[in-house]
Request: fold
Amino acid sequence: MTPINCQQCGGLTQFRIQPDGLFKCHECGDLLHRRDIDLAGAEVWTVNAEGMLGYVASPDASLTEMAEAVEEYLNSPDSTYGQLAALERHRTALIAFLEATAAGVKALPTYTEMQVHDAVNEGADIVNGYLDLGEPESDAINLVVNAAIACLEKPGTSFEEMVQSSYMVESPEEIRSWWGW
Reply:
């Protein structure tokens, strides 16, 4: 963990967490709110067991870096230099990942498109099964499920595009007719 030090008193004193959630420099008394912690996109702040403020590389960024390094290694022509550079890039990212996890920072969970698809459909089945909804309500829930999946596959999907890819109807207006709208 790289310490985040107070710049008001020369950058020599590390901020420490206070009971009110603010960070305080015990040298000059300067206070720092978490919203004021400004880090690069691939870094996250953390607090160690002694309450000292610092930052580490984002474990998500490290995982991405490791995956890219593996891809680079596999795509390297039989170049020893290229392969060694890729291995070093992977090693550096792995060390950063291990440092972040040792500091208590976890990678965000990731899900495959199929896992999300299955979970959304299972959620709809749970609601439909438990509430014993009628056909119009069940159709509306399934319409939302199909819209969510369409947006997952292609963010910004319009209603018309979703209808075209999910239903065998002449036009989106036909769906309105299901409810007499």
Q: What stands out?
A: The chain has a mean pLDDT of 89. Strands lie at 2-3, 16-17, 23-24, 31-32, 43-47, 53-57. The first helix runs from residue 59 to 75.
